Amino acid sequence: MTDSVLTARSLYRFFRAGDEETFALQGIGLEVAAGEIVAVTGPSGSGKTTLLSCLAGLDEPDGGSVHIAGERLSHRGERERGRIRARRLGVLFQSGNLLDHLTVRDNIALVQGLVRRKARVRPADLLDRMGIGNRAGALPRQLSGGESARAGLAVALANDPAVLLADEPTGEVDGETERRLLALLRERAAAGTAVVVVTHSRAVAAVADRVLKLRDGRWV
Ligand SMILES: Nc1ncnc2c1ncn2[C@@H]1O[C@H](COP(=O)(O)OP(=O)(O)OP(=O)(O)O)[C@@H](O)[C@H]1O
Asked: Could you tell me which residue ranges the ABC transporter domain spans (predicted)?
């Protein structure tokens, strides 16, 4: 497929702790086109977070490759990976992506400052779209769970990424907030972003174009 924005080929990742070896990814591939939402599901320990970390360039696969918008991300120096990540990727992990000592507005501005770009979305507009325009001046600890999830998504989308990678983005939010987040994901995909979302939620899987299942580091 030539129109895929995210291409992963034959990804392998194993971990060794003493005599114990875990094969977290066993040679899996993934292609995601612009505008497509792919949900990745699977039982605990099946390799979902490891896959997302390798796709984000936050972890290095032991074998295989990851390309984002035609640029190789895997097996590059940390600096290069950081540059590609800032320009092309929005990443939302469960640990969150907000710096505690900065307001929501400044968290967005910080991420935008990493990339030189002529036109960019104003933080206030981005937050308005998430329905939390009134929380721009708040610190992360002053946000509710649902507000944090939306602020995290705003930061992940701050540089209009080609690819959005999200690990359980609706993990701790109520039904209404989940619906809002999903509408935002769909809106972003309609604007051309390729989305990979790890989830246990049926509601999230229901808005995906494809649902893929991992078990023991392989697609099933
Ligand atoms: N840094 C690490 N060192 C050793 N083993 C690891 C490491 N990271 C992950 N693993 C192992 O790799 C396997 C896959 O883990 P991973 O976190 O990717 O699973 P997951 O599908 O995201 O699970 P969950 O749904 O519980 O978050 C597991 O057996 C896990 O114990």
From this structure: 6-220
